[in-house]
Amino acid sequence: MRKKHSRVTSTVRWIAGPIFLLLALTVMLATTTGPDAVQASGGPALAGRVVDAQGQPVSKARVALYTGGEEPAAEGETQQDGVFVLDLPEGEVSEIRLEVTHPHFQPTTWQADRASLTRLQEGAAVRLPDITLERRLTMGFWIATFTFLGMLALIATERLHSTMAALLGVAVILGVSLVGRPFNEGLFIFDFDQALTYVDFNVIFLVMGMMIVIGVIEETGIFQWLSYQAYRLAGGRVWLLALFLMALTSVSSALLDNVTTMLLVAPITLQIALTLGVDPISLLMPEVLASNVGGISTLIGTPTNILIGSYAGITFNDFLTRLTPGVLLAQVALAIYVLLRYRTEYRAASTKTSPALLARLAENARITAPDKLRKAGTVFIGVIILFVLGEQIHLVPAVTAILGAVAMLLAVRADIQQMLKVVDWTTLVFFIALFIVVGAIQEVGLVGYIAVGMGHLIGDSIVVAVFIIVWASALLSTLIANIPFTAAMLPVVGFLTRSIPGVGSKELFFALSIGSAMGGNGSLIGASANMVTAGIAERAGYPITYRAFLKVGFPALLITVTMGTLWLLIRF
């Protein structure tokens, strides 16, 4: 199975770069051409906005204007914000009727009253009240829904690589939409241009930029050096070493991301564990649990925070100031749990180590490029400062990451072709494909139905809303990888934020952040960092099975999510 996944991953890496560049070019072309909406010329015109039952704009709705004849006198499509503008034809009109249609909604009609007719005949423009469309279930709804569930099942069971599963979902959705539409209009979900509007390229470029930044820093050996210093400070006391390593991975995950942190720290942790004669799992598991929790503190700490921050407009500072106290509370509780859970292994660990092994450990943890580290470190500090100050100077995180990547490459005079290889194109294509699949279930209305159902369950209680979002996110993240789950939940939380009285613009998104990230600790497939760590351990001969991870991780989930929930209730 691992070899099969490796071959798939290699194939995806080869095709990912061209696919990513093609999609980015298509989006740029699409945004320059603009939507198919008729612009007012300054004469009499009708303007309005089309929304769904949750008040969200409906794009690509066809608006046809009739003045008494069978053929429309003017027609156009709503834009991304649901707005349309139609010019009236010249001459006297005694009747004006609008017909609004969309593949996933019931058609509706608006009839101009006498006052509106009078204003239009006088040459004025009339702004209509919002036109609300009611959803309808089509074959496309069920195709998008079952494709999304099938993708989640393939990711959870590891029958296919996650990127391949997401690409398969995109192929099914677009294939059925475009090929099936001529035969049955109900098969249509969305076209290619509209699918790309659901891709959040702020996330894509933020992740890509940070991959380049971390790729340069990784070559200096700083993370291995830090791990070895943690070992030296522990002085042979394994329980203290475990706490140092947890603190190191937690801070590193906040400044980098939890996947990158485990890729860097796990190999040296294995060496330290073998040198001390302790089971490596007893150090790796606390590390990855602390990594998933620590990453919540910043925008760039976890992939789920990147998704949430981009969707809800939550800044680096927002995460840092609002969630860090709760993260520290959860980390203290997690540390106590780890010490109790692994007390037997820590007590039995040998404090007498081979001088030869210690010498090899120190050599492997040596900083290999001190000059590059000084330059890269300076740039990295600048990137963090820009993340903190970016909101004040209107600098979005994606631009900060790209600026940091370019500055890093120029500072160390890196080989650009070599450095682009450190970009995990597989992950970037996974994000793009995931956005499209989640966009499909949003387009057909599944997300809206879920949002309405949760809204009825929650009612007007902010406390109930926080509790349900945190715990539903945490528990479901043990069954579904937290990245696709978070992507699917964003519009649901957005609806709840608008519909519950007294809720601010960010509180429920913070609840989603805590639930999805801490919930990733519940099972092996819950977070990407878990699977990365398991892969490193298995290659070293110490496999972490799904059941073994669940036995340690699920109690950690219950403990940390409880602490996170308490903090949210206190803070908000």
What key attributes describe this structure?
572 residues; Immunoglobulin-like; alpha/beta; four-stranded mixed sheet; disordered N terminus; elongated; four-stranded antiparallel sheet
What does this structure look like?
Mean pLDDT is 82; it is low at 1-41. This protein has helices at residues 2-33, 114-121, 139-157, 162-180, 192-196, 201-218, 222-234, 238-255, 258-276, 281-294, 303-312, 316-341, 343-348, 355-364, 370-389, 397-412, 416-420, 425-444, 446-458, 462-476, 482-499, 507-519, 528-539, 546-571; strands spanning 45-51, 62-66, 74-77, 83-87, 97-102, 105-111, 125-127, 131-132. The radius of gyration is 27 Å and the shape is elongated. 66% of the residues lie in helices and 7% in strands. The protein starts with a helix and ends with a helix. The chain folds into two domains: 45-132, Sandwich (Immunoglobulin-like), CATH 2.60.40.10; 202-571, no CATH class. It is α/β, with parallel strands linked by helices. Strands 1, 4, 7 and 8 form a four-stranded mixed beta sheet that branches. It has a four-stranded antiparallel beta sheet with strand order 3-2-5-6, with no helix packed on it.
Largest pleated sheet: 4 strands, mixed
Can you tell me the number of structural domains?
Answer: 2
What is the CA–CA distance across the termini? Answer: 46 Å
Find the count of extended strands (DSSP E, 2+ residues): 8
Number of helical runs? 24
Mean residue pLDDT:
82
In short:
With 572 residues, the protein is α/β, with parallel strands linked by helices. It is 66% helix and 7% strand.
